[in-house]
């Protein structure tokens, strides 16, 4: 199964070897981001709307205002706290190790070149580089602003791809930093991480 996923990633990485030269900040991406946020907040409002009927048979303007203010405050806090929430949960799940560029250069010199060129071109800080001791090929990016983003990869990814393909994976993740989609995905995934973390804790106790 792992070999099958490696073949998929290898094939996909060859199609994204030049993401640094591609401007993918289009209207379609912006629309998708706004729609995702609207659906996420809309779901929260529906939950609040349902909860209101536990306390009152009539949904009043006061309830609408209370739900709207609560959702606004919670979402602002969630947006800015989501990277640290994922830091905590991922540390528990995968025991993430943080690498320097020098550490990564030993494993994949091509990836270091891609990262340095990207950060110089777009004038951002080098992302924090995470490493997971896992056989499965994994790569993901999270954060809320470009200058504090994390890019995490697994050992399994390095075992099934060559240096150019690994560099392409990093290039793709950096492309997500460039188009800001990583921030929305971080914001959306943080609540899921919290619920899963609670589930894991309860499961361990039982």
Can you offer a commentary on this structure?
The chain has 206 residues and is α+β, with helices and mostly antiparallel strands. The chain is built from eight helices and four strands, in the order αααβααβββααα. The chain has a four-stranded mixed beta sheet with strand order 1-2-4-3, sandwiched between helices. A hairpin with a 7-residue loop joins strand 3 and strand 4. The relative contact order is 0.16.
Alpha-carbon Rg, integer: 20 Å
Residue stretches low in confidence (pLDDT < 50, at least 5 long) are 1-24
The level of helicity is over 70%
**Distance N terminus to C terminus?**
31 Å
- How many helical stretches? 8
- Tell me the number of strands: 4
Outline the biggest β-sheet.
4 strands, mixed
Structural class: alpha+beta
Written as H for each helix and E for each strand, in order along the chain, the element string is HHHEHHEEEHHH
Beta-strand residue fraction: 5-15%
Q: What is the residue-averaged pLDDT?
A: 83
Q: Give me the side-by-side strand order of the main sheet.
A: 1-2-4-3
Identify the overall geometry. Answer: elongated
